[in-house]
Specification:
572 residues, alpha/beta, Rossmann fold, 22 helices, 19 strands, globular, binds adenosine-5'-diphosphate, binds magnesium ion, nucleotide-binding, TPP_enzyme_TPP-bd, metal-binding
């Protein structure tokens, strides 16, 4: 008979050992989709007091786990079935790894003897090796008595150093194998200090401060590594003591409020081009920052980089002052060694930034005042912005092309880690998974601002949102297409152009099917009213926000990344 591992002289098995290992390490939530061979694992977890949230697609469950990891510094757990379920979850695991979010994808797998000889088992796949290129690490458990150490290893790998995604393979026969309960209990591992502090070297701190003290035109860039570190007060103290302008990367918005006087967000291209000393705090010089190169950046600018990962340094451009350590420790060391007035930005630099900000604020005001029927992105987002202006509790999830680019600029963030978006990959499909993860983890309301195309990738999770009655409001920016909805099929015929979606789609009826509140709005006032009502209700809602199909630009702000044919097609 199988009983719990705590009863001596009894037996336990892989299912119980896995659940016990999670509980021992304070993991309280699993996101997943059940089926062979993990159904009983979810059942048992639930019976043991772990919250299990069942999804409609593994990718969304994985995204919920990943964002939980980002928000809590503890790995989010995603549970899937073998082969296809695993592969569906793998996209989320890869995205988590790319974004440095700690998560563990746990998948059941088929009989290893058959899989390895490729004899055609049910859902046959060598999952561990398939996961390796897309994860920080991939492990397989081959004996039930190894489950404890495997869970410990997976957790530590996910959260220590640079956080990332870990794959843990649980073959069906390991789950079902019974062993002596006492042996099992003794095999479990309670992890001590899963993400040890990594203190920066004192000389690295001095080198960085020396560079900053000699700067005329310093600039601080805050990335989501800084947000992840949860060192908000120390970080603010540091930035304020430097008096330097700062730029938040999209998910670092709100670490210092977007209306902070030192924010240079609305003078972004100017400060990138002109800064002479740039301090990167938990941000990589990847495509989102033009790889640190001209024309966006001055070739003579010197860089300071704070990161937990030593091999990030010099990855795109030479770094004059690397500071390797966890952001919390590194920023604390900087604060201990800096006084107000140590860094003296040239007043002309600050004036020039202030002038740009004023000019750009005027341009933005003009865009926001654009005619409101039919709505465009700006008039609609103005309404959303006004409703969210005094709601620091609300999480904002955001994906799409124009919907992402424009919302990022229009919607100010006033609290840390409240903006969750397409991130390092610029990926579509994170919307409902992130929204559910944030709502479950925090209990706070979530507003997911979604392009109509982006929403489609995870739209079926509306049922999940309604089943768990989560305080999630989805706003679908419906312009009837990818980028925009007015392209034509250049060959004539009845098929739509590749970018076109259904203009007449009533997305609000999808949520009504599951008992949520649907709204169909065509003006900023009705949008604001619907959003207020939905937030007040703290219940699932979807606002189908109809905007002009002719609004939006191809590839949003990434036009330069979208190669276009030099030769016109027939019929163009
Ligand atoms: P963004 O997209 O916001 O610019 P990135 O994801 O490019 O941010 O960069 C985040 C960086 O932060 C990564 O290089 C990662 O190694 C680093 N990082 C993540 N967590 C920490 C931490 N706790 N301490 C120090 N660095 C961190
Ligand atoms: Mg669209």
């Amino acid at each position: 008979m199988v009983t719990t591992a705590t009863e001596p002289s009894a037996q336990t098995d892989g299912f119980h050992l896995f659940v016990d290992a999670l509980k021992l390490n304070h993991i309280d939530t699993i996101y997943g989709v059940v089926g062979i061979p993990v159904t009983d694992l979810a059942r048992l977890a639930q019976a043991s007091g772990i919250r299990y949230l069942g999804f409609r697609h593994e990718q969304s469950a994985g995204n919920a786990a990943a964002i939980t990891g980002y928000l809590t510094q503890r790995p989010g757990i995603c549970l899937t079935v073998s082969a296809p379920g695993f592969l569906n979850g793998l996209v989320a695991l890869a995205n988590a790894t790319t974004n440095c979010f700690p998560m563990i994808l746990v998948s059941g797998s088929s009989d290893r003897a058959i899989v390895d000889l490729q004899q055609g088992d049910y859902e046959e796949l060598d999952q561990m090796n398939a996961a390796k290129p897309y994860a920080k690490a991939a492990y397989r458990v081959n004996r039930p008595e190894d489950i404890g150490i495997a869970v410990a290893r997976a957790i530590r790998t996910a959260v220590s150093g640079r956080p990332g995604g870990v794959y843990l393979d649980l073959p069906a026969d390991v789950l079902r194998t019974a062993i002596d309960a006492q042996t099992g209990a003794q095999s479990l591992v309670r992890i001590v200090d899963p993400a040890p502090r990594q203190l920066p070297a004192p000389d690295a701190i001095e080198r960085a401060l020396d560079l900053l003290r000699h700067a005329q035109r310093p600039l601080v860039i805050l990335g989501k590594g800084a947000a992840y570190a949860q060192a908000d007060d120390t970080l603010r103290t540091f930035v304020e003591r430097t008096g330097a302008p700062f730029l938040p990367m999209s998910m670092a918005k709100g670490l210092l409020r977007d209306d902070h006087p030192q924010s240079a967000a609305s003078a972004r291209s100017f400060v990138l081009e002109q800064a002479d000393v740039v301090m990167l705090i938990g941000a990589r010089l990847n495509w989102l920052l033009g790889h640190g190169k001209a024309p966006q950046w001055s070739p003579s600018a010197k860089f300071i980089q704070l990161d937990v990962c030593p091999t990030e340094i010099d990855s795109n451009r030479p770094i004059a002052a690397p500071v390797i350590g966890d952001i919390r420790s590194s920023v604390a060391s900087l604060v201990a060694r800096i006084e107000q007035g140590d860094v003296r930005p040239d007043p002309a630099w600050l004036d020039a930034i202030a002038q740009r900000k004023t000019a750009n604020a005027q341009k933005m005001a003009a865009r926001l005042a654009a005619p409101s029927e039919p709505m465009g992105f700006y008039s609609a987002l103005r309404a959303v912005r006004d409703v969210l202006a005094d709601r620091p509790d609300v999480y904002v999830v955001n994906e799409g092309a124009n919907t992402l680019d424009i919302a990022r600029n229009v919607i100010d963030m006033i609290a840390p880690r409240k903006r969750l978006d397409a991130g390092t990959w610029g990926v579509m499909g994170i919307g409902m998974g992130y929204a559910i993860g944030a709502a479950v983890q925090s209990g706070n309301p979530v507003v997911a601002i979604e392009g109509d195309s982006a929403f489609g990738f995870s739209g079926m999770e509306l049922e999940t949102i309604c089943r768990y009655r989560l305080p999630v409001t989805v706003v679908v920016f419906n312009n009837g297409g990818i980028y925009r909805g007015d392209d034509v099929n250049r060959a004539g015929g009845t098929d739509t152009a590749p970018t076109v979606l259904m203009k007449t789609a009533h997305y609000e009826k999808l949520i009504e099917a599951f008992g949520g509140a649907g709204y169909h709005v065509t003006s900023p006032d009705s949008l604001a009213g619907a959003l207020r009502e939905a937030l007040e209700s703290r219940a699932p809602a979807l606002i189908n926000c109809v905007i002009d199909p002719a609004t939006g630009t191809e590839s949003g702000h990434l036009k330069n990344l979208n190669p276009q044919s030099a030769v016109k097609p027939h019929g163009a």
